[in-house]
Amino acid sequence: MSDEKPKRVEPYPTEDDRSFGYHAARTTLDAAASLVPGAGYAVGELVKHFIGEPLERRREEWLTSIGEGVAELQDRFDGFNPSSLSDNEEFISAVYETTQHAMKTHRKEKREALRNAVLNIALGYRLDEVERGAFLGAVDRFSPLHIAVLKLLSNPEENPEYVKSVQNIVMGSRDQFIGPALGLHASDGSLSRVLSDLRREGFTDGSESGGMGGRSLLQKATTRDGDRFIQFISSPAD
Global pTM? Predict the structure, then answer.
């Protein structure tokens, strides 16, 4: 058997046709503009430069980040061969699905979570179709705050601000301390919605809102599904 390392993968190709959605938008607006004398050029240029090009740039940046991530996997993991991904139907499906989600957000945290999900699948992290769809749908619906809160609840002791705020508490509810630990102001009403969403998704066990004290305030509050979701969207581990 040859010890030669597989050829390093190049960045994901981006010089291809624009997306169908972009073409559809151009065709529709150009057709409408043709009914207004003198408006066709202005509308067409607006669509091209202020809508089409930014969308295409976002798409290219996303696909390039996937290609760069795959190249990093080859450098980090012995035996990982990127050429095998062309036959990996789960990986191909994941790239397609996450591209749809990535195009809808400008938030770095969400795009990073989607990228990590693709790279974990490339490495062999297996989910059934229902679970994968549920997890990717959660990333799509969640805000960066959802992800930050879930990670804190999965291992409260990793957040120094949270640990400091609860260390002398005799009795209290963890949701009192989550906000300040993540830099939220007391007037922010978003945390209660986030906690409700996480419970409804089955990612937390509800103990984050119950009264407790001492070391119990540092216990994890995530469920098995919550832990699997975090693993799915976290950077692939060595």
Answer: 0.76
